[in-house]
Design goal:
Length: 795
């Protein structure tokens, strides 16, 4: 039944009045426009080559946007550009002509009748012979921008067609030679300018801004009542499993309906009064139906990924089993080579350009839809969210495969998998949920608004209602707390957790977050929570923030350690019981760091070990700065009991502490500095290796107890033996290789492939001596630095 309601709803909306198309073209007399350009003067229309060449002399190479960057690349966009501040538009009939064109554009694009369009000049562009602009999508440069208007000035040229595409359709616009040609299209349409073959193509580009609109009403005869019935049925029936199996009991009803619109919008451009074409009609109807069904409706932005079983054109076969032929190649024995790149790799050029439009889609293997932004009910404001949408909640009149993806990736056959085409889309959506389930529907998306609602109930003296609503979050709240928006969510959740006065629910609200979310401004709330719920609760909460493994899994946590001293100071001075949070925070940070220290100290490869231990120095310094006296003493005791290689971490830690004013006078600094000084002094007191001493420390204990390692140890510890020829079978050679490499010994090992078995040749390298000289030099430098930081008393 669930699928039936969604399917019927999509059909009803698909049958609603289709207003307009994604692109339109209008021609007007050339005399309607008088255009002047600084440095050139008034342009006589139609344009001739001499005037156009003067325009080029005043122009610059046109740029284009890619993400946050503005680039110049004639391989992507090859045209000349004059900025709008150098243009003057006028003429006795221009304003009236433009107003009429905009009214026609509004109607042709299907915008609501109450919309008032305004055209804002963007640039004057000149395309000469061979110049072009590859397929692209305009950025919405203004919150009110809904599309682009291209005014082609009359000129004698060939080529330079403007091709606008959307939803699997393309419209080709060719400019007039004698009249002004106005071409309008929505901002999310991909479009391109084909290379000019002769003459010059000159256009005035303008941004289309929607100044005012109101949602269209349903009017008589609209299917609002039927749509409302579909919504009621959808939210009353069990959610349908995609493949019709997998549950022994009926699933609960869906929480939402997510109806995907056809056009793409930005966060700034998403609004009920700025929807495009059929989206405006369908969204207005669905919004009215939601009201009749006692539901709420919001607009959202969705990221869609689909994975298809796909066949590239050079792998297709006809019914006789022969390879089909493509691209008008005249070689009957080509077998698809016409689609290969010069290096012979099929489809490499397609992977570079992302054009897989001619691939044949067979079966949909997997799909994923995530809502990342939505508007708030009854408010023009929007908020970032993260909400995966299950199959049972999705509805669309236009399938994804009928639209143009913004990115595609093809994976060829790899033996066990492959021949898959991944396609990504950005679509807007109308999201509907029953009013009585509104709180959970918003909260499941990680909405700060839901937490603010809880806080509002607490502020209004309704703690029981707040607790009841908060408990309803338990089934899904654990999925929140990560990503770039976790900190604001934690900031909103913390005062709610304190105000609920219910320990288990408070712990549930705070548990999903990681320690990297915490900062100094959370200290007062954390101290209040610990005072309200007790030290055992605080220890458990802190443990949940470190996660099950307690490992530093990314740069965010390493960066967070720099804020740990300030956070702990703020906790200990806050009202409440901040130390109940500070102590386990430091303890957790130290435990994870101690585990990493132990792991790296066991690595024999010196360069790898030293690099890792040096990186741990600064985090260790922050932990020591944040710790109280008792914890500092315990950490110092552990550090002083570790092997000499720990100096590779301690010296960087002491340098980091010394860089913090006043820390070099702290007791922990003096204790560790004294310990390091004693170890370095002892190391430097050892006899210098003799010039003929080639002895090395054996490569640790062999766990397999083989008969090879005693012979290897005898060679390594020998003062006089530098080389060893060792006939060994392959498996035994590999074992010796691994033993040497794992220990990081300065011994080369090669195989002389003569005779049977082959001979393993071991040679001690000069690094036996250079490593020791480097170590002594480093120790002398570190010791000198320590003595400047903590000078010994005279006397």
């Amino acid at each position: 039944m669930g699928r039936g309601a969604r399917k019927h709803l999509a059909e009803l909306l698909g049958g609603a009045e289709q207003r307009g198309d994604f692109s339109t073209r209008i021609e007007m007399p050339a005399r309607a426009l008088r255009i002047e350009v600084d440095g050139v003067g008034e342009l006589p229309l139609p344009l001739r080559a001499p005037v156009t060449k003067k325009l080029i002399a005043q122009a610059r190479q046109a740029r284009f946007g890619r993400g946050e960057q503005t680039l110049t690349d004639t391989g992507v966009r090859d045209t000349w550009e004059i900025t709008p501040d150098r243009l003057t538009l006028g003429g006795p009939d221009w304003d009236l002509t433009l107003e009429g064109v905009l009214d026609g554009v509004r109607a042709a694009l299907g915008l609501p009748p109450t919309t008032v369009l305004r055209a804002e000049p963007h640039a004057l562009l000149v395309y000469g012979k061979g110049q072009f602009f590859l397929p692209h999508q305009d950025s919405e440069k203004n919150d009110a921008m809904v599309g682009s208007l291209v005014v082609s000035l009359p000129s004698h040229h060939t080529g330079g067609e403007l091709v606008v595409a959307h939803g699997g359709r393309s419209i080709i616009h060719q400019a007039s030679r004698e009249r002004l040609t106005f071409t309008a299209f929505y901002a999310d349409c991909r479009h391109e300018v084909k290379p000019v073959k002769s003459g010059y193509r000159v256009t005035l580009t303008m941004n289309l801004l929607a100044e005012r609109a109101r949602p269209a009403d349903g009017g008589d005869g609209t299917p609002v009542a039927d749509l409302a019935h579909c919504l009621t049925e959808h939210f009353a029936q069990p959610a349908e499993e995609r493949y019709g199996y997998g549950r022994s009991r009926p699933a609960p009803p869906p929480n939402r309906l997510v109806y995907l619109l056809d056009h793409e919008y930005t966060q700034r451009g998403l609004g009920w009064d700025r929807l495009k074409g059929a989206d405006a009609t369908r969204a207005a109807l669905l919004r009215q139906a939601a009201g009749q069904a006692d539901c709420e409706a919001v607009l959202a932005l969705a990221e869609v990924r689909e994975t298809w079983d796909a066949v590239p054109p050079y792998d297709r076969y006809d019914h006789y089993g022969e390879t089909e032929h493509f691209d008008d190649c005249e070689d009957d024995e080509c077998e698809g080579e016409c689609l290969l790149d010069p290096d012979g790799e099929p489809g490499a050029e397609r992977r570079r350009t992302g054009d897989f439009s001619d691939y044949e889609l067979n079966d949909l293997i997997d799909d994923e839809i995530t809502l990342g932004w939505w508007t708030r009910p009854g408010s023009p404001d929007g908020e970032r969210i993260s909400l995966p949408v299950p199959y049972a909640e999705v509805c669309a009149t236009t399938e994804n495969k009928e639209l143009t993806p913004y990115q595609s990736e093809y994976e060829g056959y790899m033996g066990n998998y492959g021949n898959t085409l991944d396609r990504w889309y950005r679509r807007a959506a109308v999201v509907v949920w029953p009013r009585q389930r509104a709180f959970a529907a918003r909260a499941e998306a990680g909405s700060e608004g839901a937490l603010k609602e809880l806080q509002g109930h607490l502020d209004d003296g309704k703690p029981e209602l707040a607790r009841t609503l908060a408990r309803s979050l338990a089934p899904f709240w654990k999925h929140h707390g990560s990503g770039p928006d976790a900190a604001p969510l934690f900031t909103a959740a913390l005062p709610v957790a304190v105000g609920l006065a219910e320990a288990d629910t408070a712990a549930m609200l705070l548990a999903p977050f990681g320690v990297e979310t915490l900062s100094e401004h959370h200290a007062p709330g954390l101290a209040k929570a610990a005072a309200r719920y007790g030290r055992a609760w605080a220890r458990e909460a802190v443990g949940s923030w470190f996660g099950p493994t307690g490992a530093w899994t990314g740069a965010d946590r390493t960066t967070w350690l720099t804020s740990l001293p300030g956070l702990c100071t703020a906790l200990r001075t806050a009202d409440g019981d901040g130390d109940a949070v500070a102590a386990p925070l430091v303890g957790g940070a130290w435990r994870t760091t101690e585990q990493q220290l132990a792991g790296w100290l066991g690595i024999g490869r010196e360069s790898e070990r030293r690099t890792a231990l040096e990186r741990l120095g600064t985090p260790l310094a922050h932990i020591l700065q944040a710790a109280d006296t008792e914890t500092t003493d315990a950490i110092t005791t552990v550090l002083c009991g570790l092997p000499d290689a720990v100096l590779e971490c301690l010296i960087p830690a002491l340098r980091a502490m010394a860089a913090d004013n006043g820390m070099s006078r702290a007791p922990v600094f003096r204790t560790l500095a004294g310990h390091c000084e004693a170890r370095l002094t002892a190391f430097l007191a050892r006899p210098v290796r003799a010039a003929d001493d080639w002895s090395l420390t054996p490569a640790g204990t062999c766990r397999s107890g083989c008969d090879l390692c005693p012979d290897l140890a005898a060679f390594l510890t020998s003062r006089t033996r530098r080389t060893m020829d060792w006939p060994l079978a392959q498996a035994k050679r590999q074992h010796v290789h691994n033993r040497i490499d794992t220990a990081g010994l300065p011994v080369s090992h090669t195989t002389r492939r003569q005779g049977r078995p082959f001979t393993l040749v071991l040679t001690k390298t000069n690094a036996v001596f250079t490593r020791e000289r480097t170590a002594r030099s480093r120790a002398e430098s570190d010791l000198a630095w320590l003595r400047t930081q903590a000078p010994r008393p005279h006397g």
